[in-house]
Automatic annotation (TrEMBL):
Its EC number is 2.5.1.19. It comes from Nonlabens ulvanivorans. Pfam families: EPSP_synthase. InterPro entries: Enolpyruvate_Tfrase_dom (IPR001986), Enolpyruvate_Tfrase_sf (IPR036968), EPSP_synthase (IPR006264), RNA3'P_cycl/enolpyr_Trfase_a/b (IPR013792). One of its GO terms (molecular function) is 3-phosphoshikimate 1-carboxyvinyltransferase activity. This is 3-phosphoshikimate 1-carboxyvinyltransferase. Belongs to the EPSP synthase family. Pathway: Metabolic intermediate biosynthesis; chorismate biosynthesis; chorismate from D-erythrose 4-phosphate and phosphoenolpyruvate: step 6/7. The keyword Amino-acid biosynthesis applies. It catalyses: 3-phosphoshikimate + phosphoenolpyruvate = 5-O-(1-carboxyvinyl)-3-phosphoshikimate + phosphate. It comes from the Bacteria.
Length: 425
């Protein structure tokens, strides 16, 4: 499905309230924890494909599991299956079979796990014979993906003697580890994190005892409420940044004290004139000022999923940008650095330079192009959604627009609500 997005002709509605479902990162952590502690109840679970894949895999009795494009499901389930008795082959989409997993597999093998590569060494699919983990200390490279570390942390409380995880190299995507720590602690698991070691203690309490000392936004003792997804909120920050002063929209179910690192968006978008306020767990975004920064420099090593969104905001507003800390982008749903350079260069106002871990954009404010600008999405949900707000400057043709279901299935319906004309081509 390709979609033509055209600039809204009528005046933009100002009273828009969006309900985005729970964070897919939080949801997929909590689903693993629920598999270990079935009494746990999860409120406001994500409706994303990634979370549905995780749920289906955990419910499945089959010994062949396909998790599609879901990176967290692939990494967390690899550790989960290694920790539980049984034989499972886990695979994913074509792209998933190109996303490296050796760091996690090596770490799990070093503590006894039996895992084989079905095709190419270092990449899914994996054949896992579970129930052989027998050691209590593991080391791994922390610079490739934080998801490998989270995967080990999530299974640690169910192991005979817990797990001490030594982090080697420069930690990437740190807030995602902090999120895992918070969720483990919220169900009563003891986690100690010194400079380079994370120790997760084996729980010898019963699950209900653990959950009853839960501290994270509990609606009841056994129930944890997932905050809505900040990574998806990014597209609405970008949308508001491109509107006139006074424009406002509201997103439901966000907490002032967030465990999601992408909540840093509220600071980043101040440079684009967007003010954030909270009212009873509603996030209110207001365009306060037409004055925006002329150039921004941001290190996104902690918020890699916002790189495309911030890039597209800058492109539309004509703000020069130097984005750093992007080394993980090459192994995500697509090589996001290459994708941004390719698609970004289709806008005549921009000049883009890239390295292994940076993108530099030099641009002038975007004007209406004679033809729709083609946005190839390369199987990456964030390519589609990050560029979509740019439609209020010039028409876009979003290729393979169905990719959004990976994280935000109702995105195109929400975009219609702010009067973007959307036509299926
Ligand atoms: O743990 C998580 O939920 C995630 C961690 C990040 O990945 P990396 O640690 O691979 O950067 C992020 O990009 C991804 O969307 C979700
Ligand atoms: C990188 C992402 O997800 P994952 O690695 O979990 O596939 C993402 O959602 O941007």
């Amino acid at each position: 499905m390709d979609l033509l997005l055209e600039k809204p002709l009528d005046s933009l509605s100002k009273e828009v309230v969006f309900t985005i479902t729970g964070s897919k990162s939080e949801s997929n952590r909590l689903l693993i924890l629920k598999a270990l502690y079935p009494e746990l109840e999860i409120v406001n679970l994500s409706n994303s494909d990634d979370t549905i894949h995780m749920q289906e895999a955990l419910m499945s009795q089959k010994n062949h599991v396909d998790i599609g494009h879901a990176g967290t499901a692939m990494r967390f389930l690899t550790a989960y299956y290694a920790s539980k008795k049984g034989l499972v082959t886990i695979t994913g989409s074509q792209r998933m079979q190109q996303r490296p997993i050796a760091v996690l597999v090596d770490a799990l093998r070093s503590i006894g796990a039996k895992i084989e590569y079905v095709n190419e060494e270092g990449y899914p699919p994996l054949k896992i014979e579970g129930g052989h983990i027998n050691d209590t200390a593991v080391k791994l490279d922390a610079s490739v993906s934080s998801q490998y570390i989270t995967a080990l942390m999530l299974i640690a409380p169910s192991l005979e003697n817990g797990l001490k995880i030594e982090l080697i190299g420069k930690l990437t995507s740190r807030p995602y580890i902090e999120m895992t720590v918070r969720h483990l602690q919220s169900i009563g698991v003891t986690v100690n994190w010194s400079q380079i070691d994370i120790s997760v203690e084996k729980d010898d309490k019963s699950p209900s005892e653990l959950i009853s000392i839960s501290s994270l936004n509990s609606t009841s003792q056994k129930s944890l409420t997932v905050e809505s997804d900040w990574s998806s909120a990014g597209y609405w920050y970008s949308w508001v940044a491109l509107q006139d002063t006074g424009y406002q929209l509201t997103l439901q179910h966000y907490f002032k004290e967030s465990v999601q690192g992408d909540s840093k968006l509220s600071e980043y978008y101040e440079a684009f004139g967007v003010q954030t306020s909270f009212d009873n767990n509603q996030l209110i975004l207001t365009k306060r000022s037409e004055k925006v920064a002329q150039r921004i420099v941001i290190n996104l090593v902690n918020e890699p999923d916002q790189a495309q969104t911030i890039f597209a905001t800058c492109l539309a507003l004509g703000v020069d940008a130097h984005l750093t800390g992007l080394h993980t982008l090459r192994i995500k749903e697509t090589d996001r650095i290459a994708a941004l350079k390719d698609v970004g260069s289709r806008f005549r106002e921009s000049v883009i330079e890239t390295t292994q871990d940076t993108i530099t954009l030099t641009c002038i404010p975007l004007e209406q192009h004679a033809e729709p600008v083609v946005i190839d999405t390369f199987d990456d949900h964030r390519m589609a959604m990050a560029f979509a707000p740019v439609a209020c400057r010039t028409s876009l043709l979003i290729k393979d627009a169905g990719v959004v279901t990976k994280s935000y299935p109702q995105f195109w319906n929400d975009l219609k609500r702010v009067n973007v004309n959307i036509t299926e081509i």
